[in-house]
Design goal:
Length: 166
């Protein structure tokens, strides 16, 4: 199979990719590409509308997806992504474009690896930078603290994540 970095694209499917019938209906609804380093990418049309809407990435070669990206509104852009950084099958980080403007505006993270999000960042003014943070400091699944950047201040460089590049 060809390296995805060297693959050229014809009609949305990389040359050399293996077409796959994920739902077993007899027609291909996705494809699989494996890089020479073992990283595998699956791109799937989960709702059978002819458009690929889900990307699964196995970054460590264990045949389990470590990252998932989903186009929820069929605009051709990923609207939500989840990433399992430590391989425990729980998402450690997730981000989403909740208002459909093409900019990630909400992100959550499980910083202590207990399977529950304990910090959330929200971009309330669509500038691509978080300006509100919520934390669950006692691990009960409820947000305990809300931190808001003061009005008129620049949050970039202050520890707030740049959600536009998430």
């Amino acid at each position: 199979m060809s390296d995805v970095d060297d693959a050229s694209y014809d009609g949305g499917t990389p040359d050399g990719a293996e077409q796959v019938d994920y739902d077993g209906d007899g027609s291909a609804d996705g494809y699989l590409v494996t890089n020479s380093d073992g990283t595998a990418y699956e791109v799937v049309d989960t709702n059978n509308d002819g458009a690929y809407d889900t990307v699964l990435v196995d970054t460590d070669g264990d045949n389990d997806a470590d990252a998932v990206g989903v186009d929820t509104n069929n605009d051709g852009r990923v609207d939500a992504v989840a990433y399992d950084a430590d391989g425990d099958s729980d998402a450690d980080y997730a981000a989403a474009d909740t208002d459909g403007d093409g900019i990630i505006d909400t992100a959550v993270a499980d910083t202590n690896n207990d399977g529950v999000a304990d910090v959330a960042y929200v971009d309330t003014n669509a500038d691509g930078t978080a300006d509100v943070a919520y934390t669950d400091s006692d691990g009960d699944g409820q947000w305990d603290t809300e931190t808001t950047a003061p009005s008129g201040t620049e949050t970039a460089g202050t520890g707030a994540p740049d959600l536009a590049s998430a």
